[in-house]
Write a structure and sequence with these properties.
The chain contains nine helices and seven strands, in the order H-H-E-H-H-E-H-E-E-E-H-H-E-H-E-H. It is globular and about 50 Å long. Helix 1 packs across helix 3 and helix 2 packs across helix 3. Keywords: Thiamine pyrophosphate.
Length: 269
């Protein structure tokens, strides 16, 4: 049985690390980091099977590579990396680059991401490769930003996933409805988003992207023989009242006062 309370507490610790790390570095995508950590912690702690040796294991791709900080801090909170190396974030020749680099952290990072629209095509390749090599029971999980869906390569990948009936592919959209300096629906409208994925042959589910139980339930629904996309409704800057749903926090970092306020909020129940 999954311990959803433990996942929630781990995600909360990841949020503390995000604030501290970005404040120390003076860089980072704080809002984007905070919207994704519940999804990442749920996948790693309660969903994916990573016990076997590669390639016979579930794989995770962070396609929204600008959310690297959220991945690093979630990994630190889960004990997958030493929290002390968070001090290196975005330094010179660091393990923790501003976008994930596989050569630096090969046990955590599947691909070098940051050029948006690349993660889903690679996830399709992983899922298809698993099918062809007799490992169709292994799933490829791809976390996408919603603003990223303006990239046409995602939809080319979606057509391929549908053609090859990749029911071992799970795309998760971090649907926080903000990108860059505004709303997705103002910058490049996505709605009706569910209908678009349906038209491309996907099974479409929606969930609360900050509720580990809802995320796990959506991911683990019985297969319908189709690739699956989960529209995870999230909030950019989630967990910090003055950051939540504020476009400016896409690429802002907390100052000393904001750090103290944010950490205090994360101590509250």
């Amino acid at each position: 049985m999954m311990d959803f309370q433990a996942i929630k507490q781990t995600a909360r610790q990841a949020r503390r690390y995000v604030l501290q790390m970005n404040h120390r570095a003076g860089k980072g995508h704080t809002g984007a980091d905070l919207s994704e950590v519940d999804i990442i912690c749920t996948l790693f702690m309660g969903v994916m099977d990573r016990g076997a040796e590669r390639p016979d294991q579930d794989r995770f791709i962070l396609s929204k590579g600008h959310g690297a900080g959220g991945l690093y801090c979630s990994a630190a909170a889960m004990g997958l990396i030493d929290p002390a190396i968070l001090d290196q974030f975005m330094g010179d020749d660091t393990l923790l680059a501003g976008h994930p680099v596989r050569q630096k952290l090969p046990d955590l990072v599947e691909i070098n991401s940051g050029g948006l629209g690349h993660g889903l095509p690679i996830g399709v390749g992983l899922a298809l490769g698993n099918k062809l090599s007799g490992m169709g029971h292994r799933r490829a999980f791809v976390l996408l930003g919603d603003g990223e869906l303006a990239e046409g390569s995602n939809w080319e990948a979606a057509m391929s996933a549908s053609k090859f009936k990749l029911d071992n592919l799970v795309a998760i959209v971090d649907r926080n409805r903000l990108q860059l300096a505004g709303k997705t629906e103002d910058i490049m409208p996505l709605e009706p988003l569910a209908d678009k994925w349906l038209a491309f042959g996907f099974e479409v589910l929606e969930c609360d992207g900050h509720d580990p139980e809802a995320i796990a339930n959506a991911v683990n629904q019985p297969s319908t023989g189709k690739p699956r996309v989960i529209l995870a409704n999230t909030e950019k800057g989630h967990g910090i009242s003055f950051m939540a749903n504020v476009p400016a926090w896409h690429h802002s970092v907390p100052n000393d006062e904001q750090l103290a306020l944010g950490l205090a909020e994360l101590e509250e129940d």
